[in-house]
Recover the amino acids of this structure.
């Protein structure tokens, strides 16, 4: 336990005032934590913290790393259970959670969450509840997904606490309730932002109950006035919003911003992309405006009360113009010199219409403040201006139009002053963007003094638009940064003033203002805020000594004005306070005032008359009415401090502000050393419970502050991300510009190239023309030459035709020549012929002459013969007649003969025909006969085939038989061999010799028989076929029978004797016979395989021979047989029966056939 | 001419209208009236038409040459045949190859063996594959023919015809089967080839035994009509038709052994249809035999 002691020591040293020791100790703790994984150290630390509230311990605890988280949570959970330690534990938890430890996701599983919820549900201590709710609200965005299982617990808590706010069951001080209300309000925002559907359905179900209706009316409904409709209500569903995918993309700060988006409350809201579609610029202007106050208020809360006031002073200007929303923009616009259109766009809002009352005749004190803004708005001259003018003109008596001018100037100068500041940031942010820098530098160096704000602004707008116009959030961010800077400057200014002289800036400005307002305007933009704030201050200060006290209170009011409703009411309230001092005490402005009254100070009414002067009458009336109502309520229910339209946050702010004011004032006034003294001063002894209350209040405020800080951190995170986007965008812009330059260069190059191209083209055209000319010339030459050539060609053709003609002529002439020659030849021939004829004719003439002479001679002879003939004519007639008759008879005879001949011919011809017909008949007959013969042949062949097949079958049968027989023989021999082997050999040999001698006689006789039988034994083998042929075999069969019988008997005997005979055979002639038998068998097999029918007979003969020889031997052996006939009998008889049977079959078969 | 005039004049139209075989019996009777039967014409008739069962045995006997074409010699030749049968029968009894209790089919086998000279030395000798074929055919024939002698002769001559006349063509049949199966159903052939079942189909049963034992006798007769009349290609078509008919089942089977087993034991219910389709298929592929009736 040395270690424990060690730890105790360390713990005691933890809060050592020496810085070095502190660091050492812290380092030692961290080392320990790294080394040690046990819960002990953590537990000790928690204990220590709870005991001493040590900041160091808190620091260590809130930076705990992973393995210790469980111990820490367990420990916290332990302490959470105890009522006494609950509050510090909760604040510790809050500290730890706000650090956003890496193990924050484990929170949802930790039992701590359950006990926290339980505590929130059951606890009755407001402080604990408020702290717990804030812790819960902080925790919710860290566990959006896993927290959904406790959704109804959250809702239940909300329901309980909202009811609490109204009913106050614990009857605690209202101050607490304000805190509680504020935290419930935050819870409402968180829940509505994160789970709208579920939450709305919860609200619906929870507040539909009658007992809850009042709570709804009083507490929840006003809250709902500060939120817009969540888009998820339209697009999402209960399940969808619990979908893990929805939350996966969102980091904690995203969730926070999401929730802020749907808020209409300026203290809560954050306007980012998508929510404002009207005009971006408007948005931005508005945002400056809204973020500015929030930022400043933030800072304000962060720093002491005293410091907070100056920051919020800018807002004062806005508050100074209640109901004139367009003018709300003026400080912003002066600073940023936004376009007038924005204002015009903004002005028509219904809220403005409602809130802007008609002119108030006498608004003297506020004149100064309005003079700053009203002319401005008037200068823009729109509906806003229209509204503004009635107010402004009477108010701004000293600088009617010129003020506006001045104001513009001021804005310009201020703008001139601001840009450098704005751009300082970008400078540092983007050192790479030299172009931008150049612009900025030039702006800085040249334009700052001379250039108009519009220029710089437009530059800025361009710059901003170019960089991040698409994302108004970025712009917003920038503006944010600017505003922060401004505020920083103001704080600096503030800080320069000693803390004691808290009011001094105002006074100072007041003084300067009283000198000349314009001068204040011409001050730097940051200062302008001061100047503007100071204006009202001066006005306020003048009326009463309480002015200083009054101003601070007003400083926080600006929070209201961004949103119309709240913006109006505080003004009204203020007016109410001013207008009706009597009623004022419970005044809407409310709790603070009331409280202060409650605290025992009766000062409030002091400043109220100021409002009377400062506010228009109608507004005053309106507010008065309101306050009356509120008063009633306040009277009715103690806690009716919340206006239906004021957000609880405002109320809280106001409360703080008032508290701060009171504090500072008292401090200033009384310069009392202690608060207790302060309290005593207020009247009555300081009750201990009040101190307690104040402490608690302080604690609550601290919690609230921490919560707000947490929110700021989230915003900062987001801002960083957006800045990165801006940087990227500008880089791209640069890149684009560079590309454009390159493009230009290239375009130039292209132009140069085009020029040269044109030149080249011109040259080319020239060449082309020259070339064309030459070509044309050449063409004409060619044409001429061609023409010439054609002429020549024609000439030559003409000549050729002539030549042709000549040739033709020559040919013709030749032909003619030939013809002539022919003619000549012909004529020569003719000539020769003629000459021949001539000679012939000459000879013919000579012959003619000779013949003529002969003719003459013959004529004379003829004459002579004629004379002779005439003498002999009479004798010849008779002779001729006789001849005639003879001839006639001969003719008749011949005719008869012819007749006979023809008759004979006819007869013979008939005969021939007859014979021929007979012949054909015969032929036909022959054919038929042939056919028939063929038919018969076929028939016979068919039959023959059948017979043949039968014959073949028979052959097969015999073969089979033979095979069988041989088989049997073989078997017989084998068996006999085996049996007779042991018989006497010599005896057998002698007996064989004797028997051979005496058997010779027998054999002679036998041989004859056997011969005869052989002749017949052949037929039986073929009998199968022969017997079928006809009955002829019957003749054969008769002699066969005795033979068969004989044969069979002999068979029998031989078979019977064989066993005995085999012995001598084996001795004497067995080898030969055996070999012979084997040969036979072989032959048979061969025959069978070859189916040679011819050899069949031979083999059978041989077989029979063989049998015969055996039979020859048999008788000789017969005598010897007796010794052993008995033992053979059964087998042999059987076989013999078979044999006999075969023989019988032959007969039977015979009969069959 | 006289025959023609006697025939129904409508006979020409029957075939056109689709009635086949109305006049077949009559024309067969006319054919059978001729003395000296024209074997060619009988062959053509048998190939063209299914034989009427009352004339089937007669026609088969004539076609197988058991009885000659002349009517006169029928009785005589049959007598010879009978005698031959009994001779052989007796011989076999003598050498105790058969006895009274021997089944008829075995008797036929022994007789056939004896006649062809292939009788084994002993009864106990194992059967040759060709003997198995003979037995199968004889069994089928026994169902169709009553008279044992006629039956024996038909079987014997049928087997002889197969062994002599169709021996060469029978060996070609598996190839032809593949060819026609390719034409008819390529997919089935592919499947069979894929299973390697093509070589393992029951060719012995189909082509050597001519479906004896595979088809019931009523269907078998019609196939054998064609085979006896000289066309053994019909066997291929019957096989093709069997494959086509049982295509789905065959495709469902994957192994060659299963297919073979299935084909060896095909269901016997619609074999008539198979044979009819096979005959049609055979007609379409091989053409109608010349109408010479």
């Amino acid at each position: 336990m040395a270690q424990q002691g060690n730890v105790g020591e360390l713990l005691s040293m933890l809060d050592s005032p020496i810085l070095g020791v502190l660091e050492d100790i812290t380092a030692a703790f961290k080392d320990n934590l790294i080394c040690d994984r046990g819960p002990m150290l953590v537990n000790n630390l928690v204990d220590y913290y709870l005991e001493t509230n040590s900041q160091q311990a808190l620091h260590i605890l809130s930076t705990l790393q992973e393995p210790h988280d469980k111990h820490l949570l367990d420990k916290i959970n332990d302490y959470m259970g105890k009522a006494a330690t609950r509050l510090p534990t909760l604040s510790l938890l809050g500290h730890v959670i706000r650090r956003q430890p890496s193990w924050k996701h484990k929170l949802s599983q930790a039992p701590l969450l359950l006990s926290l919820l339980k505590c929130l549900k059951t606890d009755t201590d407001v402080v604990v509840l408020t702290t717990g709710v804030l812790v819960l609200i902080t925790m919710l965005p860290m566990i959006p997904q896993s927290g959904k299982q406790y959704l109804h617990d959250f809702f239940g808590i909300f329901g309980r606490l909202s009811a609490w706010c109204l009913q106050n069951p614990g009857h605690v001080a209202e101050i607490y309730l304000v805190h509680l209300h504020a935290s419930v309000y935050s819870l409402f925002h968180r829940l509505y932002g994160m789970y709208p559907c579920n939450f709305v359905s919860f609200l619906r179900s929870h507040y539909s109950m009658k007992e809850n209706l009042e709570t709804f009316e009083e507490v929840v409904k006003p809250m709902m006035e500060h939120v817009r409709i969540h888009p998820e209500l339209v697009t999402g569903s209960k399940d969808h919003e619990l979908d893990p995918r929805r939350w996966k993309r969102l980091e904690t700060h995203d969730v926070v911003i999401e929730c802020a988006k749907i808020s209409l409350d300026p203290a809560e809201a954050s306007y980012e992309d998508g929510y404002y579609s009207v005009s971006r610029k408007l948005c931005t202007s508005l945002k400056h405006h809204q973020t500015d106050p929030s930022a400043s208020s933030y800072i304000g809360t962060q720093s002491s009360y005293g410091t907070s006031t100056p920051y919020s002073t800018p807002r004062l200007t806005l508050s100074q113009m209640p109901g004139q929303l367009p003018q709300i923009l003026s400080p912003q616009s002066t600073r940023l010199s936004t376009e007038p259109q924005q204002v015009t766009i903004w002005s028509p809002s219904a809220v403005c219409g409602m809130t802007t009352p008609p002119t108030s005749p006498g608004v003297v004190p506020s004149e100064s403040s309005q003079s700053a803004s009203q002319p401005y708005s008037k200068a823009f001259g729109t509906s806003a201006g229209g509204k503004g003018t009635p107010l402004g003109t009477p108010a701004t008596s000293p600088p009617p139009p010129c003020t506006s001018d001045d104001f513009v100037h001021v804005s310009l100068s201020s703008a001139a002053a601001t840009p450098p500041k704005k751009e300082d940031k970008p400078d540092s942010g983007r050192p790479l963007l030299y172009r931008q820098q150049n612009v900025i530098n030039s702006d800085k160096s040249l334009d700052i003094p001379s250039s108009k704000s519009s220029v710089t602004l437009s530059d800025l707008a361009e710059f901003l638009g170019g960089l991040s116009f698409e994302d108004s959030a970025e712009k917003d961010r920038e503006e944010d940064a600017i505003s922060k800077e401004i505020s920083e400057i103001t704080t600096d200014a503030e800080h320069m003033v000693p803390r004691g002289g808290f009011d001094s800036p105002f006074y100072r400005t007041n003084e300067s203002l009283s000198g000349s307002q314009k001068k204040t305007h011409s001050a730097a933009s940051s200062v302008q805020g001061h100047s503007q704030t100071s204006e009202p201050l001066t006005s306020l200060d003048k009326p009463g000594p309480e002015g200083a006290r009054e101003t601070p209170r007003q400083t926080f009011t600006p929070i209201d004005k961004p949103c119309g409703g709240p913006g109006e009411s505080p003004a009204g309230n203020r007016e109410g306070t001013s207008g009706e001092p009597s009623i004022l005490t419970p005044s809407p402005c409310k709790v603070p005032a009331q409280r202060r009254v409650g605290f025992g100070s009766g000062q409030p009414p002091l400043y109220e008359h100021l409002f009377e002067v400062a506010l228009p009458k109608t507004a005053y009336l309106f507010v008065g009415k309101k306050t009356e109502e509120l008063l009633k309520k306040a009277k009715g229910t103690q806690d009716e401090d919340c206006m239906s339209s004021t957000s609880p946050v405002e109320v809280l702010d106001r409360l703080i502000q008032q508290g701060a004011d009171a504090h500072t004032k008292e401090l200033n006034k009384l310069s009392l050393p202690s608060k207790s003294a302060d309290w005593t001063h207020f009247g009555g002894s300081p009750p201990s419970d009040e101190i307690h209350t104040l402490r608690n209040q302080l604690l609550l405020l601290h919690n609230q502050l921490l919560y707000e800080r947490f929110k700021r951190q989230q915003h900062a995170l987001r801002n960083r991300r957006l800045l990165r986007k801006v940087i990227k965008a500008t880089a791209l812009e640069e890149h684009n510009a560079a590309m454009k330059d390159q493009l230009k260069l290239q375009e130039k190059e292209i132009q140069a190239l085009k020029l040269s191209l044109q030149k080249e083209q011109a040259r080319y055209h020239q060449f082309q023309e020259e070339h064309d000319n030459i070509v044309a010339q050449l063409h004409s030459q060619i044409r001429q030459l061609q023409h010439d050539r054609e002429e020549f060609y024609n000439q030559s053709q003409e000549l050729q035709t002539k030549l042709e003609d000549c040739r033709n002529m020559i040919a013709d002439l030749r032909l003619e020549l030939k013809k002539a020659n022919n003619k000549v030849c012909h004529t020569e021939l003719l000539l020769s012929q003629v000459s021949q004829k001539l000679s012939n004719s000459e000879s013919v003439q000579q012959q003619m002459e000779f013949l003529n002479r002969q003719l003459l001679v013959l004529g004379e002879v003829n004459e002579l013969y004629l004379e002779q003939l005439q003498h002999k004519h009479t004798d010849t007639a008779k002779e001729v007649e006789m001849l005639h008759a003879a001839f006639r008879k001969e003719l008749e005879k011949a005719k008869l003969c012819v007749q006979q001949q023809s008759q004979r011919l006819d007869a013979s011809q008939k005969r021939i025909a007859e014979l021929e017909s007979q012949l054909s008949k015969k032929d036909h007959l022959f054919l038929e006969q042939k056919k028939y013969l063929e038919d018969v042949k076929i028939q016979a062949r068919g039959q023959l085939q059948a017979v043949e097949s039968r014959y073949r079958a028979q052959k097969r049968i015999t073969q089979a038989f033979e095979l069988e027989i041989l088989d049997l023989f073989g078997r017989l021999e084998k068996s006999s061999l085996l049996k007779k082997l042991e018989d006497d050999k010599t005896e057998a040999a002698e007996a064989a010799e004797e028997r051979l001698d005496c058997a010779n006689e027998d054999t002679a006789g036998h041989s004859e028989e056997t011969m005869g039988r052989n002749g017949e034994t052949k037929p039986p083998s073929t009998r199968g076929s022969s017997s079928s042929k006809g009955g002829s075999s019957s003749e054969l069969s008769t002699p066969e029978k005795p033979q068969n019988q004989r044969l069979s008997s002999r068979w029998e005997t031989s078979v019977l004797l064989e066993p005995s005979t085999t012995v001598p055979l084996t001795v004497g002639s067995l080898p030969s016979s055996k070999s012979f038998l084997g040969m036979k068998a072989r032959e048979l097999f061969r025959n069978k395989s070859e189916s040679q029918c011819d050899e069949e007979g031979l083999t059978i003969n041989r077989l029979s021979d063989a049998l015969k020889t055996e039979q020859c031997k048999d008788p000789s052996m017969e005598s010897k047989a007796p010794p052993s006939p008995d033992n053979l009998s059964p087998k042999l008889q059987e076989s013999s029966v078979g044999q006999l049977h075969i023989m019988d079959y032959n007969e039977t078969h015979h009969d069959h056939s | 001419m006289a025959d023609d005039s006697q025939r129904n004049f409508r006979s020409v139209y029957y075939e056109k209208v689709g009635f086949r075989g109305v006049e077949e019996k009559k024309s067969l009777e006319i054919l059978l009236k001729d003395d000296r039967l024209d074997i060619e014409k009988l062959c053509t008739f048998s190939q063209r038409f299914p034989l009427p069962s009352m004339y089937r045995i007669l026609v088969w006997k004539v076609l197988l040459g058991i009885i000659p074409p002349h009517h006169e010699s029928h009785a005589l030749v049959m007598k010879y045949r009978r005698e031959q049968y009994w001779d052989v029968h007796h011989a076999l009894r003598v050498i105790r190859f058969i006895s009274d209790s021997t089944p008829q089919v075995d008797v036929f086998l022994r007789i056939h063996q004896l006649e062809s000279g292939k009788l084994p030395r002993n009864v106990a000798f194992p059967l040759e594959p060709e003997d198995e074929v003979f037995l199968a055919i004889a069994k089928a024939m026994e169902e169709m023919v009553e008279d044992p002698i006629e039956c024996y002769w038909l079987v014997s001559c049928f087997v002889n015809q197969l062994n002599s006349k169709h021996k060469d063509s029978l060996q070609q049949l598996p190839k032809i089967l593949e060819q026609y199966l390719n034409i008819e159903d390529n997919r089935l052939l592919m499947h069979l080839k894929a299973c390697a079942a093509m070589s393992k189909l029951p060719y012995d049963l189909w082509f050597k035994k001519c479906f004896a034992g595979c088809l019931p006798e009523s269907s078998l007769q019609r196939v054998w009509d064609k085979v006896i009349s000289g066309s053994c290609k019909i066997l291929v078509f019957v096989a093709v038709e069997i494959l086509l008919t049982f295509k789905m089942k065959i495709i469902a089977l994957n192994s060659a052994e299963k297919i073979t087993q299935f084909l060896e034991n095909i269901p016997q219910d619609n074999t008539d249809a198979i044979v009819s389709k096979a005959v049609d298929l055979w007609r379409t592929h091989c053409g109608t035999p010349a109408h010479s009736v």
Remarks:
- Chain A touches chain B through 33 residues (CB under 8 Å).
- The mean pLDDT of chain A is 64.
- Residues 1-106 of chain A form one domain.
- Chain A is about 80% helix and 0% strand.
